[in-house]
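name: query_chain
kind: protein
chains: 1
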Amino acid sequence: MTLIQEIGRGGMGTVYRARHEILERDFAVKILRSDMRRDPVVVERFKREARAASRLEHPNVVFISDFDQLPDRRFYIVMEFISGKSLREILNTEGPMNVTRVCSVLSQIADALDYAHEQGVIHRDLKSENIVLTQSRGREVAKILDFGLAKLVSDALDMQSITNQGQIFGTPETMAPEQITGGVIDQRVDIYAMGVLTYELLVGKPPFSGHMLQVLMAHKKQAPPKPSAERKGVPPELDELVLKCMAKEPSGRYAKASELVAVYQAVLHQAAVTANKKTQPPSVPQRQGASSVRMDLATDERGVLELKLHQSVLEIAEHLRDRNLGSARITQELASILEQEEKLVDLRNRKHLLQTQLDSIEVSGRERAARLRHAIISLTLETKGNLEQDGAPKKLAEDVRFQIVELERRLSEVISDQERSEKELEKQLASLVQELQTVEHEIKKNRDALFELVQAARASIGNSSTLRNAYGQIDELRQKIARIPT
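structure:
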């Protein structure tokens, strides 16, 4: 394995991108700090804990593929290389995320935590820098880095709270009170960090910030703030989640990360329901006295009945195929329909993802542009006010004007990037919609053909009560559909 370049450096060690010469794949190699190589007891502890971390196999956890020591006895860990941006980088460049994206990302993270906790592995340093978003098969996937490494390093250094540099081990902004005081540590420190992370992604900053000691004291003594106090439109369920995750006493928090998944998914479901209602065109009564509500219900009822009819036809076709009744084409049409319907589900999922991405880019671009415009306006007013008065430092005025020019350049970049991204996604979406329409048309043709074949086979069913009842059901469904106004 050849080290190609340094890609990160932190409290645990240095990370390199490396190329595996035989596998011809890139990996990330983290060489841990030299403090860990001194004590043979530490070496055995590291190996035991590293094995536990390497057993984690979850789609949202960066896997560990190898660990060992260099000739100078420094430990190194070989991990999956992820091409993407950390949540911290995304927040720095794009600002706070919209609610649906937050819930989509964090439901993945919470699921990974639940899995790891069941394996007895705690992260202990979960933060926005340790979560990377990448693309996989057209969807956004969150990956947790450094799973278990916080425990490996802190155990190896054999220190409860203070390193030899005189700093708290871990990240003050996300540390649970019991981590600060050296109390008993369990999976609920990760639950606490999830509350911090939820707030940070929604608001754009952690709930407590400032000088390290101030932050630590706030985690110990201050009540956590609600995200909705800083940002409009945050659902009350997420306010409650943050407050419960960040309870001072571990007993006041969620017991399992799976409980967080349920909350995030509930918010996503409600958002989807609301979005569907908003996208439906307003009902217009067709004639005097007609109920628009009844017409809407009729449309929904037609869809349900047509789906039932299709399922009944498929069941009859399968019976006919299994009993060698009717045309041999029934088998071909069945196989074709099932294959096309699987493709249709995949296309619809991809369409939903693209639409979500497009909405996310639009919202985040608008928010970023608004913040930049606000900064430009504020600095412009300051330049025209205090800085242009007699006696104002010339250098200061020039600096402010330079900042304005830079902000305007950045605003232009944000708008251009957003337009470019939207055009690309819209192009992909248009192509996908066209493909969807083609598949839907083919399915309809095959369904009609299958229905005709099933009807033609009615005379060959003999005394089969099962098939007679099934044919009676499709006749009844067709009559119900015919009575619904179009």
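note: DSSP finds 13 helices and eight strands in the chain.
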